[in-house]
Design brief:
The chain has two domains: 4-27 and 265-395 and 451-504, no CATH class; 55-237, Immunoglobulin-like (Sandwich). Helix content is 39%, strand content 27%. The protein is built from eleven helices and 21 strands. Strands 2, 3, 7, 10, 12, 13, 16 and 17 form an eight-stranded mixed β-sheet that branches. A four-stranded antiparallel β-sheet has the order 1-4-9-8, with no helix packed on it. β8 and β9 (126-132) form a beta hairpin. α5 packs antiparallel against α6 and α7 runs antiparallel to α8 (430-448).
Length: 505
């Protein structure tokens, strides 16, 4: 038979397994959402038309903020054409000089269209603009759109150089572009050695027709070259840009640090409230320890059925000659009050049952009295309010509940911040990993921040000793106890019921 201590151990193992399974599931869940989002998050321009000419002009300020004008001449195929849509990623991905992928958060502001109706939409990963209106159509033929915005790469993290990076072309979903031109006006003069054009990590300078005149770069890119994303990376001397702004926030960092602090708090709580008090050795107990009634013993032992605990109290009232039970039909019993309401010697839970049985008269047929169901709730409340505080360390349990409450709030915030807020500098992404490890640590220590009181350890050992004795007692010893106390068998009968000792029933 699984005893109380074994049940607690099994419960702890189950909790640890469920907790570990949850933390294994979260990364898969987050990774799935992230992958699906990135599939639909590249630069996009609607593709139901041909672009005859795509001109990009960039005026770069000394603080590395760029005013961009994209002039797009479209060959409209039909008269019911409604306009164009373009989206721009807010996370710039490119290859650095050492062929490693770098990620930077860019700010796109003041996105607008000149001379056209437009609407914009923005999420944590991209910003889009729809130019045109469903209420108006544009005649077939050539039509020019002008989209403008301010592009900010933010503060430069490089130690030995500054850089300007811009995705000139981003593989626009098979949209046909016949000609693309680029003009960049820098704050001061630049040289050809500063300029690099990339397709992924491959430098393609020799394939691009470009020239530099003082502080201006001009380039032409033909349609056959637009088969993959093209990125301009301009390397400049350190300090070229001044007064740059920080594009990253503190929400994700705060949440991650809070989770790390929570793991420290969880460890401190476990160290102070989670370590068990000294264990007591089981002793041979001939009688129920500490004058506890059957329901109290069963509750401490770990019996969860309040119906079973209450039934044991009724059996105890019979053995103490407070009530009698008479079978009047099959599975139908009449209970009589023979104790004349003298309940002073009964325990608190026994008094509750005794009083509720005969609240109206001295006889009751239990199966015909649905109001007795309320007694189960009273007995349960009494056991929890009296025995739980004596046996279990309530402060430790409250610390455990507090940790788990904060932890689940933290997990939700962690997922939300990682997927949607995304304001942490990628070079500090290790903090996401550390905070996720902290989540596991917090839950691990919280599970173990639960213990018995010193009294709880002592009384549990005595109850297990009492149960062990009843399970293994020799017949001669039981006979001796019955001779000493003729009512001994009936006195311990309720206890054998809640302790699951069926051999003696």
């Amino acid at each position: 038979m699984i005893m109380k201590r074994s049940k607690k151990t099994l419960k702890t193992i189950i909790l640890l397994f469920v907790w570990s399974l949850l933390l294994v599931t979260i990364p898969f869940f987050v990774s799935n959402l992230e992958s699906n989002r990135y599939k639909n998050n590249g630069s996009y321009i609607s593709s139901e038309f041909n672009i005859k000419d795509y001109d990009v002009t960039m005026d770069v300020d000394k603080n590395n903020k760029v005013d961009v004008i994209e002039t797009i001449t479209v060959d409209i195929p039909e008269n019911d054409f409604k306009g164009i849509y373009k989206s721009i990623p807010l996370w710039l991905k490119y290859y650095s000089s050492d062929n490693k992928i770098k990620t930077k958060k860019v700010e796109i502001t003041n996105l607008r269209a000149e001379g056209e109706k437009f609407v914009t939409n923005k999420n944590s990963d991209s910003i889009g603009i729809r130019v045109g209106s469903n209420r108006t159509t544009i005649n077939s033929g050539l039509h020019t759109y002008k989209i403008m915005y301010r592009y900010d790469m933010g503060k430069d993290d490089n130690k030995n150089y500054d850089e300007l990076v811009f995705n000139i072309f981003d593989n626009y979903d098979n949209t046909k572009i016949e000609n693309m031109s680029l003009t960049i006006n820098m704050p001061t003069n630049i040289s050809k050695e500063n300029i690099n054009f990339y397709k992924e990590n491959k430098k393609i300078n020799s394939n691009i027709n470009y020239s530099i005149n003082g502080h201006t770069l001009k380039a032409n890119i033909l349609n056959y070259q637009l088969d993959n994303a093209i990125t301009l990376n301009m390397f400049l001397k350190d300090g070229y840009f001044i007064g740059q702004t920080n594009n990253y926030g503190f929400i994700c960092l705060t949440i991650c640090l809070a989770l790390i602090i929570l793991s420290i708090y969880s460890f401190i709580s476990w160290n102070k409230y989670g370590k068990d008090f000294s264990k007591y050795s089981q002793t041979v107990e001939f009688y129920p320890p500490d004058n506890l009634d059957a329901a109290q013993v069963g509750y401490i032992y770990g019996e969860k059925s309040i119906t079973k605990l209450t039934t044991a109290l009724i059996i105890a009232l019979v053995s103490k000659n407070y009530i009698s039970i008479e079978e009047i039909q099959k599975n139908k019993y009449k209970i009589k009050n023979i104790g004349k309401n003298n309940s002073n010697k009964l325990s608190l839970t026994e008094q509750i049952v005794y009083h509720d049985l005969f609240i109206n008269n001295d006889e009751i047929i239990l199966s015909e009295n649905p109001s007795f169901a309320k007694t189960l709730s009273k007995v349960n409340s009494c056991l929890e309010s009296v025995m739980n505080k004596k046996v279990n360390d309530v402060t430790a349990k409250n610390k455990m509940y507090l940790t788990f409450t904060l932890l689940f709030i933290g997990i939700v915030l962690w997922i939300f911040s990682y997927l949607y807020v995304r304001d942490l500098n990628p070079k500090y992404n290790i903090i996401y990993i550390l905070s996720f490890i902290s989540i596991f640590i917090s839950g691990f220590f919280a599970i173990f921040t639960n213990r018995k009181t010193s009294y709880g350890e002592m009384i549990t050992a005595k109850i297990l000793g009492f149960r062990n004795y009843l399970n293994t007692a020799e017949k001669d010893k039981l006979n001796a106890l019955v001779e000493e106390n003729p009512n001994y068998f009936y006195d311990i009968l309720p206890y054998t019921y809640v302790l699951n000792i069926f051999a003696m029933l």
